[in-house]
Write a structure and sequence with these properties.
With 450 residues, the protein is mainly alpha-helical. It has one domain. The protein is 71% helix and 0% strand. The chain is built from 23 helices and no strands. Helix 7 runs parallel beside helix 22. The protein starts with a helix and ends with a helix.
Length: 450
């Protein structure tokens, strides 16, 4: 039954899912029409919101480019490559390979989603060199574990609650005016239950989805998986003074030492605080040190940067969609607010977390940004939670998990992994349709029970 559903999903998605760029354009038009119809704003006003928001993710776009490029560059360094090879050598058959990729990537995503996103795809590529597993499913399995980042240490919602200040009280309508530590969010019974149950389900689904027939299994030419950078070192007689610096580890050691000093100081001052900037900094400094010489670092980076084009092109369109969704009319009503209100109006104290989850999942299709969603939903759901007597932490984590849930079918976050893998969104999304359905049902039930 599962195989039949998977095969049908793969065929449908492969046939009808547009390229991620076209997907972003179509979402833009849908958001435009919905905002026009339901908020009463004129086309000129909506266009103004779109254009104003279009460049709102520039800093984040650059961070994502660096996550991809630096993560890929680091993975090509000798020690990291050996570690990936060692893990990839463990499985003896496709099922074992898919299970290991899923669990390993789930663990790295819980530590930091940027780290997990790239290393998961790189591990899947190494697996494909050694085991005759369906390459599309290996990459889909690595990306499916992206679901778990919001329940881990880089959860933007949990970290925002832990550092809540004056602005946070304004965002939540005065309901939360003091920090809520991660011991009450990440280690709450509801979050632990969601992590354990959903990791079990996702791992089982990934393992069972592998095609049973050889003719249905899509393998990849192993020669296409080779992305070793070429470094040609001139002979000593041909080396210029500049060439000697390029092939000498001296400057790498100096810069690497300064970088390590900064990282240590950062963690002493801030505790185990990981954000995209510090993760990218660690990636860069580690790559500088592990590649040894500037020449090897630059060669590896030239290979890694080839896949960054899709991020550069598409992220501004999603920023524009955020501008449309968050743009309010003269009465302060926005399309995002209407979406959230429609769920709140039918909720009870027990069902509010479930509706927070579902509305976050819907919003995430248009606004695939935890911060953007939080700004739209927090002012609506937290006052409602207070009025209804619903648990605030459960509502907060429900919004976080809803944001993660529909990432399974939203190609926005898959772009770095797809760039590493050399695949398109339609190659993996068919496998993830079943995940989306089952995770949505199971998470909703757990949230109602808690």
């Amino acid at each position: 039954m599962l195989q039949k559903f998977t095969n049908a999903s793969v065929k449908i998605i492969s046939k009808y899912l547009p390229d991620p760029y076209l997907f972003a354009v179509i979402l833009t038009l849908i958001a435009f029409v919905l905002s026009w119809v339901f908020t009463g704003q004129s086309p000129v006003e909506i266009t103004r919101n779109w254009g104003t928001g279009f460049w709102g993710l520039l800093a984040f776009s650059m961070q994502m480019v660096l996550v991809l490029v630096l993560g890929h560059t680091l993975a090509q360094a000798g020690p990291v490559k050996k570690t990936l090879v060692t893990i990839a050598s463990i499985p003896k058959n496709p099922t074992q390979a898919i299970i290991i990729v899923t669990l390993a990537t789930a663990g790295t995503n819980m530590i930091n989603w940027g780290f997990g996103l790239v290393t998961g795809a790189l591990l899947a590529k190494e697996m494909a060199k050694r085991v005759e597993a369906d390459y599309r499913l290996l990459i889909a399995a690595s990306y499916s574990s992206f679901l778990f980042w919001h329940g881990g240490f880089s959860s933007s919602v949990a970290l925002s609650l832990a550092s809540a200040g004056t602005n946070f009280a304004v965002i939540t309508g005065g309901v939360i005016d003091a920090p809520i530590p991660i011991t009450q969010t990440l280690f709450s019974p509801v979050n632990i239950a969601l992590q354990v149950v959903l990791i079990t389900i996702v791992t089982f689904l990934n393992a069972k989805m592998h095609p049973k027939k050889k003719e249905d299994t899509v393998l990849i030419d192993k020669a296409l998986l080779s992305d070793e950078p070429e470094v040609v070192k001139p002979s000593k007689n041909e080396l210029t003074p500049a060439g000697k610096l390029e092939h000498s580890p001296l400057l790498s050691w100096i810069i690497g030492g300064l970088g390590m000093l900064f990282v240590v100081d950062h963690f002493i001052r801030n505790g185990f605080a990981l954000d995209l900037n510090i993760v990218n900094f660690i990636f860069l400094i580690a790559a500088v040190l592990l590649h040894g010489t500037p020449a090897r670092l630059l060669a590896a980076m030239s290979v890694a940067i080839k896949g960054a084009g899709s991020i550069v092109l598409q992220f501004p369109f999603y920023a524009g969609i955020m501008g449309i969704i968050g743009g309010a009319n003269i009465y302060g009503v926005s399309l995002g607010g209407l979406m959230s209100d429609s769920f709140v109006n039918i909720a009870t104290a027990q069902t509010l977390p479930m509706f927070a989850f579902l509305s976050a999942g819907l919003l995430n299709i248009f606004v695939p940004s935890g911060g953007g969603q939080w700004a739209l939903q927090a002012p609506i759901f937290f006052p409602a939670a207070y009025e209804l007597g619903s648990d605030l932490v459960t509502v907060a984590m429900a919004i976080a998990w809803g944001d993660s849930w529909t990432n399974l079918l939203q190609p926005f976050w898959a772009l770095p992994a797809l760039a590493v893998a050399g695949l398109g969104a339609k190659d993996i999304m068919g496998f993830l349709l079943m995940h989306t359905v089952i995770v949505g049902v199971v998470a909703s039930v757990i949230l109602v029970l808690f």
